[in-house]
Write a structure and sequence with these properties.
Blueprint: E1 2-4, E2 9-13, E3 19-24, E4 35-38, E5 43-52, E6 55-63, E7 68-70, E8 74-77, E9 81-88, E10 91-97, E11 110-114, E12 117-120, H1 122-128, E13 136-140, E14 143-147, E15 162-165, E16 170-171, E17 181-192, E18 195-205, E19 208-209, E20 213-217, E21 220-223, E22 229-237, E23 240-247, E24 253-259, E25 262-265, E26 270-282, E27 285-294, E28 301-307, E29 310-313, E30 322-328, E31 331-336, E32 349-352, E33 357-365, E34 378-379, E35 384-388, E36 392-394, E37 401-406, E38 409-416, E39 421-423, E40 431-436, E41 441-451, E42 458-464, E43 469-470, E44 475-484, E45 490-498, E46 503-509, E47 514-515, E48 519-527, E49 532-541, E50 549-555, E51 569-576, E52 583-588, E53 595-599, E54 604-612, E55 622-628, E56 632-642, E57 646-652, E58 660-666, E59 685-694, E60 703-706, E61 708-712, E62 718-719, E63 723-728, E64 738-741, E65 743-745, E66 752-756, E67 764-769, E68 774-779, E69 784-786, E70 793-801, E71 804-812
Parallel strand pairs: 1-57, 33-41, 43-51, 53-63, 64-71
Antiparallel strand pairs: 2-3, 3-32, 4-5, 5-6, 6-7, 6-8, 9-10, 10-11, 11-12, 13-14, 14-15, 15-16, 17-18, 18-19, 18-20, 20-21, 22-23, 23-24, 24-25, 26-27, 27-28, 28-29, 30-31, 31-32, 33-34, 33-37, 35-36, 35-38, 38-40, 39-41, 42-44, 44-49, 45-48, 45-50, 46-49, 47-48, 50-51, 52-54, 54-59, 55-58, ...
């Protein structure tokens, strides 16, 4: 069910030996966008997905820093065009030339995405209804500026060809802005609150002569009066103004800069300009895309920059097909017709990485033991690679290849082998030293792995859609996942699900081979090395006593010669609980509550994240985002159960830590709406169950805390509950941790925090900030803590004592 998508730096190599270093945005976007915009944290793109008789359909994608969210489709008239996107006042404005969008009233030429829906902007539409289009938008100060073929109105102080909007109404333009522009505006740009530049084909600004370009600052206009260059696109950085355009009456375009009230031509280094598509300024440097020939360069250049008063190539960035450039978090992002080279997908959007080198390698089964990958060998994707210094963890893609960007320096790459695998001692013995240099690709990091044959080993996992709870008198979903994790094919075996007396009306896919009074049996044939299979079960729980527990156990027989049998059985103990949940996280082993007890010797922990669609819409895509905490380890991540097909992305965290983010994406699962929270509608729910490694050396009293977020389609992520795991020296069976509210006073507090607790010994406490970061932990000596040194904010405290978890929230001022 699992498809792994690895986030890596794309390396495009050409016959010249030059490497191009671009970062992929997950799976990219479907086609070259018609418009793109950015905010501090987001990227939005629009593109055409269909053109039929009478309609044209657009799709809006939003990159939120971790994955793409697709907004509902926009249907316009058959010639509808989206020219411009702009984030403003917690909404995304979408403008261009269309008679209406999605049948909304008052939606000619502009709509906005706000509060999870498209809506018209009637206050603005009424002012612009008589005009053919909106050509562009920008944010200036606290207002949204729109330009197009408009004329002034008597009701507000807006000028010809330009309108200001406050989010609720058409707003007055700044004092001394005047009557507007006499002519056509092709672009407007603002880099700061008090600096606005306008370019186009016009002769007057506010009634006074201005030739093609003018800028407004310090509440007054500066007009360029002796200029025959028509700007097509502006780029502004502080008070620097760059643009590209052409002279009146000529088609040849060039690059220019405003110098006070004059215009400088920027041509040094350029031999020929065939096409210019876009310009942008990144950290004070002007970048341009198109088709260029530079002095002393034989190859066509598609991306260049103006540096030290001369146009030069962009090292490792000459990507063909770029048509749009934007600034995102002070880095260069390009979009266009590019999709992939012979190896890697870019899919129309990528981020340029300049001061870096690339480490490239692979992991493979070296069947002929010659240390070189060839046709007989097999690519391996399930083993992690650790990079030091920095403690970075890399997971190869489905082809066994991996790539990562690193600063210049010396690094050591070490393979983390799976069970029964080892690195070939004749090749590199699992550890490779490599030098990474700026702009270069080191493609020498290849791990030749050997398999210890003749080791039968089977594993099995039983999971439930409701975790450690079950719904009485209702159908519950279960999944059995079994795998051949050994090094020997299994010809025949069986899977057994043992039931207690509280279960009935059993349905399963695939159908069982045999059902007895207390067991369901599936005969299994030809289970090959590395193969995994799933069995889906729907079973009705029918307990006559609501205090009873449900007990199930899945097993697969120990094979002859199998040395370990711990993972040949998987039990599930559930309590009866009909509590509704929309988003929930659970930790195992557990039976009730949000806290589990784990032993010091444990090297992994199991979590489950569940979701239910209680909205009124069908949910197409679900995103589960889980944070890997300080006490977890990215060296081991294994999914053991899921309701639907999914893909996985693993984002590395801070250098020197194992902190990171796992994102499980469920695409096109179409969860039906269940607004009445009908528990029988199990198709409206889903889940993911996974194991993750633990840091070695966790000592008794260590408390792990964890939460997740779940996002439906274009909805904002919703947080799950917090879950906890307490490390004990020795644990027998599964402990039930009772949960109680902790009484605090004073709350808010500035210095001392007091709490009411029974007389207990060896109580452990842990305080975390609202971000989840641990602030303090230890053993309580008294019922008072001094929090004077804490920063002002919201905190959570948990006290564990005698199998009771006391929790509360407090405010430090």
């Amino acid at each position: 069910m699992r498809r792994v998508v690895i986030l890596y730096i794309l390396v495009l190599t050409f016959f010249s030996g030059e490497a191009q270093i671009w970062r992929q945005f997950q799976n990219g976007i479907e086609t070259s966008p018609t418009a793109i915009t950015t905010s501090d944290q987001l990227i939005a793109t629009s593109h055409i997905v269909a053109s039929k008789a009478g309609t044209r359909t657009y799709k809006i994608n939003i990159w939120n820093g971790y994955y793409w969210q697709s907004l509902p489709l926009i249907e316009t008239d058959s010639t509808g065009l989206i020219y411009s996107l702009q984030f403003y006042n917690k909404a995304l404005y979408i403008a261009g030339k269309f008679s209406e969008a999605n049948g909304l009233d008052s939606s000619k030429n502009i709509i906005r995405w706000s509060n999870r829906k498209y809506e018209s902007v009637p206050q603005l539409w009424r002012k612009l209804n008589d005009f053919s289009r909106i050509d562009g938008m920008t944010v200036y100060g606290n207002t949204l500026l729109l330009h197009g073929p408009f004329v002034s109105t008597s009701s507000v102080n807006n000028g010809d060809n330009i309108v200001a909007f406050s989010g609720n109404a058409v707003a007055a333009l700044p004092v001394n802005f005047g009557k507007g522009i006499d002519g056509n505006i092709y672009d407007i740009n603002s880099d700061q609150e008090d600096f606005l530049v306008i370019g186009g084909r016009f002769t007057k600004v506010d009634g006074s002569v201005a030739k093609q370009i003018a800028y407004f600052t310090n509440n007054q206009w500066t007009r360029i009066t002796n200029n025959s260059i028509i700007p097509s696109k502006l780029a502004v950085h502080k008070s620097d103004i760059f643009f590209y355009g052409n002279e009146l009456g000529k088609s040849q375009r060039g690059f220019y800069r405003v110098d006070g009230t004059g215009i400088d031509t920027l041509s040094k280094g350029l031999q020929e300009v065939s096409k210019i598509y876009d310009i942008v300024i990144i950290d004070g440097t002007l970048y341009a895309c198109g088709l260029f020939t530079l002095n002393d360069k034989l190859d066509d250049q598609h991306l260049i920059k103006f540096e030290n008063e001369e146009w030069v190539p962009v090292q490792n960035g000459n990507l063909s097909g770029i048509t749009k450039l934007v600034n995102f978090k002070n880095t260069l992002v390009s979009t266009g017709a590019f999709t992939y080279n012979s190896i890697f997908n870019l899919n129309h959007i990528a981020q340029y990485i300049e001061n870096a080198g690339i480490a490239s390698g692979s992991v493979f089964f070296d069947k002929d033991k010659n240390c070189i990958f060839n046709n007989r060998d097999e690519q391996l994707s399930s083993m992690m690679v650790r990079v030091s210094p920095g403690n970075l963890i890399i997971k190869p893609n489905d082809n066994g290849k991996f790539f990562t960007v690193l600063e210049n320096g010396n690094y050591t790459f070490k393979i983390i082998p799976n069970k029964y695998w080892k690195a070939s001692a004749n090749c590199n013995d699992g550890e490779i030293d490599a030098v990474i240099s700026k702009g270069e690709v080191n493609d020498s990091i290849h791990f030749a792995m050997l398999l210890e044959f003749g080791k039968p080993d089977l594993s099995i996992k039983l999971t439930s859609a409701t975790g450690w709870t079950a719904r009485n008198k209702k159908v519950n979903q279960y999944q059995i996942s079994y795998s051949n994790v050994g090094s020997e094919d299994i010809t025949e075996t069986q899977v057994v699900l043992k039931l207690d007396g509280n279960l009935k009306n059993i349905q399963a896919k695939p159908a069982p081979s045999q059902i007895t009074s207390d067991s369901i049996i599936w005969q299994v044939k030809e289970l090959y090395v590395g193969e995994s299979r799933q069995i889906q079960c729907e079973i009705e729980v029918d307990a006559d006593d609501a205090t009873k527990e449900v007990n199930l156990e899945a097993s697969i027989p120990l094979q002859e010669g199998e040395e370990e049998g711990e993972d040949n059985t998987s039990g599930l103990q559930q309590i009866l609980n009909d509590e509704d949940f929309e988003f929930r996280k659970q930790v195992f082993p557990n039976i009730g509550g949000d806290t589990a007890i784990i032993q010091e010797t444990e090297d992994k922990i199991q979590y489950q994240i569940s979701f239910s669609n209680y909205t009124t819409d069908t949910i197409r895509n679900v995103y589960v985002i889980d944070t890997i905490g300080l006490n977890h380890s990215m060296t081991y991540i294994k999914e053991i159960g899921a309701s639907h097909n999914f893909s996985t992305q693993v984002y590395p965290g801070l250098p020197g830590t194992d902190i990171g983010i796992i994102i499980y994406t469920f695409n096109n699962i179409n969860l039906p709406p269940n607004p009445t929270k009908n528990p029988e509608m199990i198709a409206a729910s889903g889940y993911i169950t996974f194991e993750i490694g633990l840091q070695s050396g966790l000592t008794e009293g260590t408390m792990l805390s964890n939460k997740a977020h779940v996002s439906f389609d274009y909805f904002n992520p919703e947080q799950t509950n917090w879950v906890y795991a307490l490390v004990e020296e020795e644990s027998v069976g599964i402990k039930h941790i009772e949960e109680k509210q902790l009484k605090l006073f004073p709350n808010p507090t500035h210095t001392l925090l007091n709490f009411e607790l029974p007389k207990i010994k060896n109580a452990l406490y842990r305080i975390t900030a609202v971000s989840g970061e641990e602030v303090s932990n230890g053993t309580l000596e008294q019922n008072t803590l001094n929090v004077a040194s804490y920063s002002s904010g919201i905190y959570f405290i948990e006290v564990i004592a005698e199998d009771v978890a006391y929790r509360a929230k407090f405010i430090k001022y």
